[in-house]
Write a structure and sequence with these properties.
The chain is of the alpha+beta class. It has 18 helices and 22 strands. A hairpin with a 5-residue loop joins strand 14 and strand 15.
């Protein structure tokens, strides 16, 4: 900040006063033509200031909106003279009378655009330094700069709109669940580490040195205990913590709408969740959702979309061709465990540069390349691989994909997991690039019958897909140990526009079944007792059948607000490196604090090397 601006602020600070007996009469978005002639008192921040010689115009902003106020020498000479000190983001209070704007000066894009307030008196409540970026929606400042000055970023109307929407959604959720008989119960933040899933955040205990609490990844065990305690319907809007690598839709601390119900099956939980979403969309966006939501099994989702959270707002389904090209002259196709393709209608105009960019995109998912064919006509196929395909193979490909002149086909061959991931994500990527996704649409979907286990290649064992408390489907109990790859779970995910917004399951309520689950996961009796003994005891004392669901509130609000990142709907988020640029967290703590906890930090290897290098040589 320049010395001139500093001196100016110091000069202006002598005019700062308090509110005294002034009381705000309404917000800066409230006044309309019906208020003409009314005396009002407004308070807020100076958004813009325009000095037109005789008149000074100020756009006054609060969280609700803007009102244009006018300082006129003909109405209040002293107030007009003093208004010359106003700068951006100064905090002021004004008293004045509402009048209609002059003919031709109305602003149809502003709620208060028909009127202005002529100032009779005003107070300077505080000055402001020049902000590091413009406090307006059209802000070209980088995200890191805005996060470092988050309290200023949150003044921008779009950010305030997002957090107001979040508030309204949370209130709609609470009203619905209260009316539906749920009880809001808080569960502990300092709990036991049960390392089966993402990494825990650990908290050292001063009173029990050498022991650690863990911050909860979810209230899963406690909400099951509440069902064992007879509360029947529980909910909580709760903070959860996971020490994992981050991206646009993940944070180390996030908010979950957590629910659990007794004496229910899948249909009961899913019906309740649908009605909850219907209420939220009605109260927050004024939109009616049609129930029930479509259903799709996990197998169907993987077959047609390659992912377990398909975006159904557009077509372009994956089509399997493994059998059709088993004897192909193109060896990659002939030898691959799976071959699939997608069709992009009218994509024949894609350039080689664009195709190469798509090829690089699928490498993210383990693909070595991307085969393609442009359908120039029924007889002319432009592609490096077209010459290897027989007429019979061409006809089968054309028929299954319903390909026609002007289309482009993309192929992937190899391990099924890679093929599905590469093509499934490419499908969405292309749709976004080519604007194939309908704007302002919300497509809900249930994905059901998930695998109970998935194979962890690093640990060389099966792990639970959802969590180890999910009940197997009827008739799949024996498969837990005999054929875990084909065991299915009584699990269900709610998907919205290709995003998993909620997930849940019917839980295991039998101690014997829970023990069999842990055996299938490779737990010894001792390990199971050590980590989950309290749950076993609860299941042995008349646990009711129960199930539940949890919604990722941040992700849901992101979709409601039309944002691309959950950081835009969280007041004070972390970066992708899990740091807070505003407060500089995480930070080092004093040696005294560490001694109280009985902790000594191990010196980093690079620091040891530096110390050795700095040591004088004999």
């Amino acid at each position: 900040m320049s010395e001139q601006i500093q001196d100016l602020q110091l000069e202006h600070s002598k005019y700062i006063t308090d509110l005294g007996d002034w009381t705000r009469t309404c917000s800066c978005s409230h006044l309309t033509a019906e208020d003409v002639g009314r005396d009002v008192c407004l308070m807020g921040w100076v958004q813009f200031r325009r000095d037109h010689g005789g008149l000074i115009f100020v756009d006054l902003r609060d969280r609700e909106g803007l009102t244009q106020v006018v300082f006129s020498p003909d109405v209040a000479p002293e107030a007009h003279e003093q208004a010359g000190i106003l700068r951006l983001e100064y905090v002021i209070a004004i008293k004045g009378r509402v009048r209609t704007r002059p003919e031709g000066m109305a602003n149809p894009n502003l709620k208060t655009g028909e009127i202005e307030v002529v100032v009779h008196d005003w107070k300077l409540l505080n000055t402001s330094k020049t902000p590091p970026f413009a406090i307006e929606d059209r802000c070209d400042a980088g995200e890191n700069l805005r996060l470092a000055w988050r309290f200023l970023d949150l003044r921008r109307p779009c950010m305030q709109k997002n957090l107001i929407l979040r508030h309204r959604a949370m209130q709609a959720i609470r009203r619905f669940l209260d009316e539906d008989g749920f009880l809001e119960v808080e569960t502990p933040f300092l709990t036991k580490s049960t390392p089966e899933g993402a990494r825990d955040f650990l908290v050292p205990s001063r009173l029990n040195q050498g022991s650690f609490y863990a911050l909860p990844q979810s209230p899963q065990l406690f909400k099951q205990l509440l069902m064992c305690s007879g509360f029947e319907k529980y909910f909580q809007i709760v903070r959860c913590f996971r020490d994992e690598d981050l991206r646009a839709d993940r944070q180390p601390e996030f908010t979950q709408v957590d629910m659990e119900l007794s004496f229910v099956n899948e249909e009961d939980v899913m019906s309740m969740a649908e009605r909850l979403m219907q209420r939220v969309f009605k109260d927050v966006l004024g939109r009616e959702l049609q129930l029930p939501f479509p259903r799709m099994t996990w197998d169907e989702a993987m077959r047609d979309y390659g992912v377990d959270k398909p975006d159904t707002r557009f077509g372009m389904k994956l089509v399997e061709l493994t059998d059709a090209v088993r004897n192909s002259g193109f060896k990659l196709f002939a030898q691959a465990p799976m071959v699939k393709a997608i069709k992009v209608e009218g994509g024949e105009s894609l350039t080689r540069k664009e195709i190469d960019a798509y090829t690089e995109f699928v490498r993210i998912y383990g693909a070595q390349g991307l085969a393609w064919i442009k359908i120039k006509s029924d007889t002319e196929w432009q592609s490096p691989i077209a010459k290897f395909l027989s007429e019979e193979e061409r006809e089968t490909i054309r028929t299954r994909l319903e390909a026609k002149t002007g289309d482009i086909l993309f192929f992937q061959a190899g391990d099924p997991e890679m093929v599905n991931a590469a093509l499934g994500n490419l499908r969405v990527h292309i749709a976004q690039k080519l604007n194939l996704i309908p704007a302002d649409s919300f497509n809900f979907l249930w994905v059901t019958e998930f695998p109970l286990f998935e194979y962890d290649k690093e640990e060389h064992r099966y792990v639970a897909c959802h969590h180890p408390f999910t009940s197997p489907m009827e008739g799949h109990m024996e498969l837990m140990t005999s054929d875990p790859a084909h065991a299915k779970a009584r699990a269900y995910d709610m998907v919205l526009n290709g995003n998993e917004v909620g997930g849940g399951s019917i839980r295991i309520h039998s101690a014997a079944t829970q023990m069999r689950m842990f055996e299938a996961l490779g737990f010894s009796d001792e390990r199971a007792e050590e980590q989950f003994g309290f749950l076993f005891h609860a299941l042995e004392f008349g646990a009711p059948p129960h199930g539940g669901i949890a919604f990722g509130l941040d992700r849901l609000i992101m979709l409601l607000a039309g944002c691309q990142s959950i950081r835009d709907v969280i007041a004070f988020p972390k970066t992708q490196k899990a740091t807070c640029l505003l407060t500089s967290a995480p930070s080092q703590v004093s040696q005294a604090q560490l001694r109280e906890l009985g902790i000594r930090l191990r010196e980093a290897p690079e620091k040891k090397a530096e110390a050795r290098a700095d040591k004088p040589q004999a």
